[in-house]
Amino acid sequence: MSTVINQAVQVRLIASAPLERAIPAGLRYEPADPFAVRITFPATASLDGAEVAWTFARDLLATGLNEPVGAGDVHVWPCGTDRTVLEFHALEGMAMIQIDTTELRLFLRHSYELVPAGTESGHLDVDSDLAALLRDA
Fold first, then answer.
1. pLDDT of residue 10
2. What's the CA angle centered on 20, arms 54 and 38, to 5 degrees?
3. pLDDT tens digits, residue range 74-129?
4. How far is CA 56 from CA 20, 31, 86, 107, in A?
5. What are the DSSP E strand ranges found in the chain?
6. Which of 21, 53, 56, 113 can pair with 40 through a Cys bridge, CB separation 3.0 to 4.6 Å?
7. What distance in Å separates the CA atoms of residue 16 and residue 6, rounded to the nearest whole number?
8. Could you report the per-residue pLDDT of 28-58, keeping only the tens digit for each?
9. What's the pLDDT at 129?
10. Residues paired with 25 in a beta bridge
11. Is the peptide bond before 78 cis (omega within 30 degrees of 0)?
């Protein structure tokens, strides 16, 4: 199945007051990369004027709706009942956003309808991915 889920969302970029501001973002899920979700921020939201995208585990996002999670570049935790915080770490610095938890739950529900939890490995095309790696080597 080649269906891709794209969901536009508004996030609140958390910064030192009074710089906190709402920005558009996009959530994406593809069965071809069944363990991952992607969030993209427009060029206008970045310091260098380039679009920014983060890809991380779908399970990390799902767990972070209910409890703090993350030990690497992406951390997720609930902020009250209505908001979820995503924190991104890179060499250039750190960014933190708040996003409506209901929107995240809807996005995840659609992703799990497309690829149920526990069936992700059945959506991987290991032979094609290996051939591409060998071709690029």
1. 92
2. 15
3. 999 999 999 999 999 988 788 899 999 999 999 999 999 999 887 777 666 655 65
4. 24, 14, 11, 15
5. 5-14, 21-29, 36-41, 52-57, 74-79, 83-90, 93-100
6. 53
7. 30
8. 999 989 999 999 999 887 777 889 999 999 9
9. 54
10. 9
11. no
Integer angstrom CA distances of residue 12 from 9, 19, 116, 121: 10, 10, 29, 34
| Euclidean distance between the first and the last CA atom of the chain, given in angstroms as a whole number | 29
DSSP letter (8 states) at residue 64:
H
In angstroms, how far is CA 41 from the centroid of its own chain? 11
Distance from C-alpha of 13 to C-alpha of 4, rounded to nearest angstrom? 26
Phi, psi torsion values for 59, nearest 5 degrees:
-65, -35
Length of the chain counted residue by residue: 137
- Do the Cβ atoms of 14 and 97 come closer than 8 Å? yes
Its pTM stands at 0.84
The span from the CA of 29 to the CA of 99, in Å, is 17
Distances (CA, A) of 35 to 38, 70, 120, 124: 10, 15, 6, 9
CA 136-37-12 angle, to 5 degrees, is: 125
